[in-house]
Amino acid sequence: MTNKYIIALDQGTTSSRTVIVNDKGAIVAMEQQEIEQIYPKSGWVEHNPMEILETQLTTMKKAIKKAQIQPSEIAGIGITNQRETTVVWNKFTGKPIYNAIVWQDKRTAAICENLKEKGLDNHVNKTTGLVIDSYFSGTKINWILENVEGAKASAAKNELLFGTIDTWLLWNLTDKKIHATDYSNASRTMLFDIKNLYWDDTLLEALKIPKSMLPEVKPSSFHFGNYELNGVKIKITGIAGDQQAALFGQTCFEKGEAKNTYGTGCFLLMNTGEQLQYSKNGLLTTIAWGIDNKIYYALEGSVFIAGAAIQWLRDGLQMITSAKESEEFANLVPEESSVYVVPAFAGLGAPYWDMYARGAIFGLTQDTGKNHLIKATLESLAYQTKDLIIAMENDAQTTLISLKVDGGASANNFLMQFQAAILNTVVERPKTTETTVMGAAYLAGIYVGLWTQESIVLHRKIDREFTPNFSSEKRNRLYKKWQKAVKRSMNWEEL
Ligand code: ADP
Fold this sequence. Notes:
About 35% of the residues lie in helices and about 25% in strands.
């Protein structure tokens, strides 16, 4: 019997999933289980780490059964995970000392303010590539140590371990033997020096985190340890945080290749190659992955309101009954848009960074109808993506080669065509939009020799390619109008 399957674990914010991939790169089984969202207070979000582990193990066992494969046929396991979410546990009892604090959790805002007051902004940016924010793991660890009874004493006695979700799963899968993470996850802790590749003493000291709690950091495609199933040792050979895994799953292996995930918000990552690039526009610099003794970096930016604006059309304005319907209505307006919707419902992120901006609609005339508004709202997703890409191109001093897309709203053909036109770049939508989990599978499969990066690119199946169809005059004119609309929506709350 040959080892020809890869198991990919995808531990996400709302569910744990397991996917089994065959040696041709096809998904042969998938199992998923939701996890409970715990909201103890306003702004606080937690998960139960034991539930995370159990749902992950259950979906794995169910998927293996569904695929009717034997443990001996499994060549490797890959893990991808919700990033930044923080678990601290006792290494002797194996029990978490507190719930997992989820990336969305805002309880450490005051700790972040304190770090800023200490003048650590620049240090954080230069060392970790990030900006000081409660989003990342560092301040969450500090909160647990300071607020959980006995935690500090326990840490001093070297009893505690920290991990992001990948690390927590790995430690348990390897029978509590391996305490490690990969470069992509480490780069989201706000504690890791992404240039020199070690934990940063200044930040550990500022946040009073003993180094002994931290995992070893390894390449993303690497033999981390083994999971024993029915007496068979299965190698765990791939780990990456979800967005980086999606970048890998979209085969953005070359400098200048980027992927955009169109979900509630957009997550855009561009591979900047082996060169670390800092951003002048407030984008994040992060490690994409470590593979073959090399580190690849990425620039990351996000749009706060993307698919959420389509939800607003559906639920708030009740102009459509489903998100999908937006495409049909937009296509009923054949002429060029004169209406612009700026969905700055929660302020504007990169590259504008204006928390006082608010949503606005411009260019209304007597004959503006619902279809115009729907079309303009869809176009706003593409314009916001272009804003980020221009910032990335400037920061990375490279030109976007192609944009690979995934996420719910990437199914919208109107939006994808407009995106290609306004960017003047080919937009490529793959057949499988399961890019995150495929990224983890690829990282694991490459290590065990099932595939190479070249063979993965050759086997990639494209659903549809959207090619630019605007003249440069039209493209520039429309985009200038968008920038004008954005400017006018800024500083609203301060007025
Ligand atoms: P998330 O992971 O953030 O929940 P998904 O990738 O599941 O997001 O995508 C859901 C989002 O995409 C919703 O905000 C929805 O409004 C939007 N969406 C889904 N399908 C379409 C479509 N065909 N056209 C436009 N927007 C869509």
